[in-house]
């Protein structure tokens, strides 16, 4: 299984941007949970906690395509350093407002700035892989590796932030997330040797979202994001409902663990069927895997159930990014990938908000039904518009 990944790191400079990129995007699994646990501890309301977390995600989703376009036009380093510094300052402001018990609107204001200035580092890392390996069969392994790295983050991040928030204080998780973001992203920006060049001769008019396949993928990932956002919040509430709040990190890590295992397996295989067919099949497995969690009321049983629910996540995301790489012109690639991130961000925001409301009204166990419904919606959209996902380049 390790074989296909061995040759990825022989290119000079790869190890540097991979390590920095890993550290810089660690907070993507920590920020939402950290905000939920902090605000819930202060207000005793999952609805309020979900609303603040959703504000961050919506702001990020709105700004991500613009950030991607700026990166395509001016280069990664020139854009992400000032954005990251602004993001760090906004997170610090959010925690300060919480500490000083400032008006509720100040939490939302800080959340807007924090989200709008967040950098889609996963898209930038994948753009570097595409620049280095374009046209090579190794690109599939590289995208698979990055998806596995994402899942390692989603295994470690929730457990770490939950432990810090419960064992140290509610602010500790966000402080660690802030440090990882600033240090990792600036270190990533300093790796100039692997940075994709700015294509100054290319016209930057138009936007990838007008490509039918990208629009379809964005809708699918919007629904998937709603699953991610709702499952994250509902699972924290489920653990508390069952009298095992410290187990929230373990439960969330189970989802990521399933995705990690499937990502390793998926990336190690040489696939003969098309990307389009792989994507549709992975979506079907994704929806099927979520069925059991709406029927379980015990923490111990929920751990393996969430592991199974996570098995289809990595293959779906890996294939989705590969489709973007095939469907979008090279000079708009970062923006194209940012539209996927935007869709996920909007979905996570919707899921966090809806999950919080449904949890407060119906209880955590019943609220999982919303997550399953969103997964079914993703399948319906993906299957219904799959003809738009035919890639112009033959499969290798």
Automatic annotation (TrEMBL):
It is found in: Cell membrane. Keywords: Membrane, Transmembrane, Transmembrane helix. It is a multi-pass membrane protein. InterPro entries: MFS, MFS_dom, MFS_trans_sf. It holds the Pfam family MFS_1. SUPFAM superfamilies: MFS general substrate transporter (SSF103473). Residues 213-396 form the Major facilitator superfamily (MFS) profile domain. Its main location: membrane. The chain crosses the membrane at residues 16-39, 45-67, 79-98, 104-127, 171-189, 209-228, 248-267, 279-297, 303-324, 336-355, 367-389. PROSITE patterns: MFS. This is MFS family permease. The lineage of its organism: Bacteria, Bacillati, Actinomycetota, Actinomycetes, Streptosporangiales.
